[in-house]
Every structure is written in C-alpha cells, then in structure tokens.
Amino acid sequence: MATNTRGATLRSALQTCIDPGENGLAALPDLFTDDATVWSPNIMAVGLASLVENLDFVEEALSDVSVEISAIDVVGSKGFAEFRVSATFSGPFVLSGDVVVEPNGRRLLLGAAAVADFEGDKIKALRAYFDDATLLEQMFAG
After folding, report:
1. How far is 136 from 12, CA to CA, in rounded Å?
2. What is the dihedral angle through the alpha carbons of 123, 64, 133, 55, rounded to the nearest 10 degrees?
C-alpha cells in the first residue's frame, strides 16, 4: 500500500469524522475496517455501527465546522496527523444521560492530534487526542 494513499485515507477519515456533512457517514466503510476502533476524549466506538451512532450525536451539537489539517505523516502501517477544528456550539451536548450542556452559540477552537493504525488500505484503529477540559471550558462560557 502506498504511503500517500494511506495519508489520503487518514485525511478523509478525519474530515468525515469531524464534519460528515450531508451523506458523509456513508463513506465510512471505504475508510475504516468493519471492526475499527475509534477513540477520543468524547467518543469510544467499536465497529462501524457504533462509530456512525457516535458521530450522529456529535453532529447535532456543532455547526459551521471547519477542519484544518496541518500535517499528515505515514510510517509503515501507522499514520499521524495534527489538525485544528473550529465550530459553532449550536445544539445541546450530552455529557451523560442526565447532564446536558446547552449551546451558547460561541465559536469553539480546538487543537488536536491523531494516530491511525492501518490494515491494508483501511483504518483499523484511530485515536484522537485533544484537551477536552479546554473544550468544555469554551462550552460553559457565557
């Protein structure tokens, strides 16, 4: 598998997971294995069905999402990315069944990094790292 193909897959996966847009989730089977594991401070998904469910939830809380990927490197079967996300906090964000953060309409800014494990030309595991305390601080700001 060519490194640049894996890099393109990682770029598409990040873009789709962060801002799926209309029918974007339909692209997930082309990017991830059926049993892929995706983890971040606010998502834990095992398998494509779980990933779709988690991303549906996130999409409801944020609008006008912008993703700026500043670096992608692939070494063997591992991919690494650095990126920034900005979005408007426009819908309720459920922390747990009974804890909901109501939208404040503010623009949220977040720096992040991700590591992907590839199996062939698809992502088997994706881990995203960001400071969720900073994200929550921006959500609670009035």
Report:
1. 26
2. -40
Q: Which is nearest to 139 in space by CA: 85, 86, 101?
A: 101
Which pLDDT tens digit goes with each residue over 5-42?
A: 999 999 999 999 998 877 778 899 999 999 999 999 88
pTM: 0.88
CATH fold group of domain 3-140: Nuclear Transport Factor 2; Chain: A, (3.10.450)
Domain extents in the chain: 3-140
Q: What residue type is assigned to position 85 of the chain?
A: V
Q: How far apart are CA 114 and CA 12, in angstroms?
A: 13
Rounded Cα distance, 8 and 72, in Å: 9
The per-residue pLDDT for range 87-103, each reduced to its tens digit, is 999 998 887 778 888 99
